[in-house]
Each structure stands twice: as structure tokens, then as C-alpha cells.
Amino acid sequence: MADEGTNPPDFDAFWAWWGAGGAAACEAGIEAGTIEDLVDELNARVHALSPELTWELGPSETSAHRLVVSPEGNPAARATARRWLLAAPEPTETWTYADARPADPDPESGSIRVGDTEVDFAEIRVAATRVGHHVDVAVHHPLLRDLPEQARGVVVFISLDHTLGETDCETWIGNVEPALDPPADAVTLAGLRDLVAEVRADAIGEDGEPTWVMLQGELDGSPLMAVAQVPLASSFAPHLDAHLAVDVPFTDTTDEGLPAPGALDDLRALEDHVTTRLAGSGRLVAHETGRGRRTLHYYVDSARPTAGMVEAAVGGWTQGRVEVVHTPDPGWQAVRHLRT
């Protein structure tokens, strides 16, 4: 999301340059081994979108070359990178595009140099614990003990990105820490990739859509019910960078403050109406219900006038005043307590 008083990124200008000669120049530079001559030009074009973005060129599984524009884990820049990708031309046999660094086909190949220390990925071992729909990891390499704390973090996070790619790393990895001693029951980086693939397969349907889980809790003795999509991570839809909380009161309640059948039908109808009005500009990711209120958690594209659309959609609700609160939230922190 652009800061107030700044111009929004001009994706059309980037892709116009790319189509008018930028792609051809990059292809020629790669083939001739002179791509370094285009570094300043690519830096200027990418940084005109956001100074927090980086880029790289490489091959892909489906094309000769791939241009990656990455936010490098920065939630504030992730939306810009995704909007850049959504504006991209159709892939060809020559070029494909990505808004995050992909995984390496061989996770145990290669190494990273930190100062004078060469860390071989093949020697990394990971204690990986599945917790619900994510994996907590402790990453070990025999040389970590010799590195300062900051350098250890560099090794850990680069090895995870190398193994899983930026998107899967942000989506499915939970707690991360370096392990100075060899952990018990450790797996290789390839074994970690297999475990993450299992978690992903359990959460994502064959149509590519997330599954949903039901959660139960209690507040001051009253029951709370929640339903949330899995994965509940901003990397799933990074261009939806603002949280839209739609707080809906209902009067037809059970003794426990949950919706009676009539109210439940009305709430579902309102949810469908709001979701339809948002169309491709937003997505319902969770809702929480209790004590006579339901909060619908939407994430929306801050570049579009979504708050006004929703306020108009809920104007006919007859069971109390619906509150709509729009908050910038590129990291999806507002629903973090519902992540499983």
C-alpha cells in the first residue's frame, strides 16, 4: 500500500518497458553472459515500484528464463510484488514470472558463505515438529556454534527459503530457531520439504482453495465459536493487505449467546452478500461468534474502495448497528490468534 502523499506503483510502465525491449535485452544479456550490464536498469525499474523489492533472473521448469521480483519477507512490500505479478503478461516458453523466490529443485545442493565460513546445505539437519497446520523447526549445522547470533539467523532462514521457496516458508513454517547441538530425530532439508508437502496437501483442496477449521473457546464463561481458513497467512493472498472487521450484532440468540437458527440463516445471507459485493477485491478468511455478535474477518485490497462497498452492503441489517473497521495489515496480524 502506498504511503499517503506518494504516487502508487506504475505497473503498466514497468510492463510496457519490458514488452518494448526490456525482455529482449535481458534474454540477450543472459545468453551473452553480459547481464551485469543491465543491473542498473533493472534496479531502477524494480525500485520505482518499491525500494524494498529485489529481483533475480534464472531458469524455470516451464520456460527458458524466469524474472522474480521478491519482497524478501517484508510484508509491507509483499502486496506490491503480488500486484506486479497480477499485471504481468501471459507466460511464454521464453519467460515466466514470480513474486517470490522458488525452492531449489535439489534442497541439499549448494552452500552459503557467511564471512569466512562456508555452510554446506547437505550437512544441515532439522528438528521438524508438526503443530496443527504448520511446522516448527530447529535448524542445525555443525558450524553454527562458531558463528555470531545474527549470522546463525542468516544461515537458518536462507536454508529454509532455499528448501521451500519464500511462499511455502512463510505459509507453513511456524517457530524457527537455530540448534547448536545435533537435534534428535532430525531430518535432512529434503525430509523437511516432504513434511511441509504433507501439511500443505492436508490444508489445500484439489481446486487449490483452502480448507476450513472450526475452533472453540470461552470468554468470561460464555462460549465462543470461530471458523478460519487454512492457511491463515498473508502469503496466501498478499495483495489483500488491509483487514476489514465487520462486527455484526444479532438479537435472535440461544441462552449461551450463540445465534439461534433464524439468526444463523440471516448471518449466512449477510456474509454471502458482503462476499459477493467484494468479488475479487477481498476474501473472508475467518469469523468469530459469541455473546450476541459475529465478527467477519475480511482481507481486502487497499488499492480499491472496499470499505465503502461493505458499508453499503450491510446497511439493511435490522438486528443492530453493524460496525466496519478498516485497518492496514499486510502481515495479517489481526487474525494471528486463529492460525492453527
UniProtKB/TrEMBL annotation:
Origin, by domain of life?
A: Bacteria
Q: Residue ranges of the DUF695 domain?
A: 212-333
- Protein name (database record): DUF695 domain-containing protein
Q: What is the lineage of its organism?
A: Bacteria, Bacillati, Actinomycetota, Actinomycetes, Propionibacteriales
